[in-house]
Each structure stands twice: as C-alpha cells, then as structure tokens.
Amino acid sequence: MKEIKRIIDILMTMVLIPLMAYQVTGEAAHEWLGIGMVSLVIVHQVLNRKWYATLFKGNYMPFRILSIIINVLLLISFALTAISGISMSNHAVPFLYNLINVNTARVMHLAFSYWAFILMGLHIGMHVNVMTAKIPNNIKNVLAIIFTIISGYGFYLFLKSGILNYITFKTHFAFLDYEKAASLVFLENILMIIFFAFVGHNISNAIRDIGKKDNNILKRLVYIMAALIIGFILNMSINQNTSDNNSWQSASLQNIEMPQNEQVIENNQVETSGQSDIINDYGYEIV
Questions:
Q1: Could you report the per-residue pLDDT of 228-237, keeping only the tens digit for each?
Q2: 247 exposed, middle or buried (CB, 10 Å; 0-12, 13-18, 19+)?
Q3: What are all long-range contacts of 74-78, with beta carbons under 8 Å and residues at least 24 apart?
C-alpha cells in the first residue's frame, strides 16, 4: 500500500509541472492533464482515507496543526480549481461548460490553481524527512546550502512571474511567454516548487524542534531568510538592468531619423497592436 501511495504522490507532482505550463501544452492537453490530476487527487484521498478518521483523535501538537491546515487548504484549492476548470472546458467535459459563470470561473481558476501549486510545494516539503531519513547529516548540511541557493532563484522566478498578483486577485488575466522554450518553462516551474518545498521543509522541522534542548530552529530560519534575500537581490538587480537597457534603447531610437511614411506605418501598428491580443476563457493571452 505504501508503494502505491508513493507512486500516486510522484505522479501528482509529475502532472503538476506540465499542468502549470499552459503556454506549452495548449488548451486541450491542459484540460486532459487537469482531468488526470483530479483523478489522482481522488485516488490519493481514497488511499489516505484513514487520515480523516484520526482528525478528532490524539493531541494537537504544532506540527500536526500546521499539517492539517496545509492539507485542508490544498484540498480546497484543488476542488475550486477543478470546479472552475470544468466550467470553462471546451474539450474534456464540454457538457459542463458554464457550470458556474465563465468570468467568475476564470478568476477563480487563475488564483486557486496557483494557490494549489504553492500549497503542493509546502505539502511536499513537509514530507521530505521521510525521503531523506537515511542520508548522513554532513551530506544533509551540504544539500541544505545547495538548496538554499536553488530556492533563492526559485523565489526570484516567483516574484518575476506575477503569481503574487494572481493569488491576491489583483490580476485576472495571465500573460504568458509563448516564445519561451518548453524545457525552460518546465524548469522554472520545478525551481518554484522547490522553493516552496524548501520553505515547507524548514518550517515543519523548526516547529518539530520546539521544546527540544538541541534544536535547529535558528538554522532553519536562517536558511529560509537566505533564500528570500537571494530572491529579492536577484529581482532588484535584474529589474534594474532591464530598466537601464530599456532606457538606453529608447534613447538610441530617439536619435534615429525615420522617413515620414515609415513613421506613419509604425504609428498605425502601435494603435492596432492591442486589438490583436485575444484572451481565452482561461484568462490566458493567445498570441
């Protein structure tokens, strides 16, 4: 039974990465991947049904409370993502289209799909100890430093992606880079989920150490802070470089003389370019 549970967990993680890469998979594949994820979540719940029976038994220690909160929020996010997704389905379950208002479904799907992504990362991180139990402590310390750096870059990608605006309902449409290589899109999704798994792992271990004489609470918090600082520094420095390059390019273009007829053509293109952007039901820009 444990092996089956582990296989399901691995499959859920594997499906999640392309599921969050709509610009690579396209609408039809995205919907079928979503159906696959819903099926895996249902199987996962059935296999772990005993967990529900223990909810009102035993002591509620800090780690258990955190675990329950993450699990419940993850389940709610998955459910809302699934309901909103099938309400916009044009391929997998078109007969359920407009189950709830499409405009409402689009906003819900964008926000809660990324909440599920984040919570999935935290959930994975809280169970890393099971996978690393046999690794010597000196190797764990080296891996901690390596993953601090990797997680810092993952946090930078999170800031850069605009996901923060999606999950806070500030932005109702996702503008994706359709020219980016598929391998790079997948890699960026993996790095972001590594960041949240890293945070979940260190927070859960810090909570477990509460009350122990020999605890690593401070070290765990330092790892998280270091990753956050790396991400913030990368975000600020790269944004500054981008801003400087744009300013230089703008200044250079102003010094270039353009024939009058070409200026007219360019102005017309600028005026009409906004009309070429099409937003589908999922809130994604179609280029």
A1: 999 999 999 9
A2: exposed
A3: 74/116, 74/119, 74/120, 74/123, 75/41, 75/45, 77/112, 77/113, 77/115, 77/116, 77/119, 78/37, 78/38, 78/41, 78/116
* 62-86 vs 182-208: helix crossing angle, rounded to 10: 150
Residue 6 DSSP class: H
- For residue 14, give Cα distances in angstroms to 83, 123, 148, 176, 264: 21, 15, 22, 21, 50
Rounded-to-integer distance, Cα 162 and Cα 283, Å: 14
The secondary structure of 212-259, three-state, reads CCCCCHHHHHHHHHHHHHHHHHHHHHHHHHHHHHHHHHHHHHHCCCCC
Alpha carbon distance 15, 167 (integer Å): 21
- What is the per-residue pLDDT across 143-155, written as a single tens digit (0 to 9) for each? 999 999 999 999 9
Binned at pLDDT 50, 70 and 90, residue 85 comes out as very high
Question: Residue 40 belongs to what H/E stretch?
Answer: helix 22-47
- Output the CA angle 17-22-27, nearest 5 degrees: 125
Task: Please compute the mean of the pLDDT values over residues 49-60 and round it to a whole number.
Answer: 88
pLDDT at 283 over 60: no
Contact 121, 163 (CB under 8 A): no
Tallying the residues shown for the chain, one arrives at 287
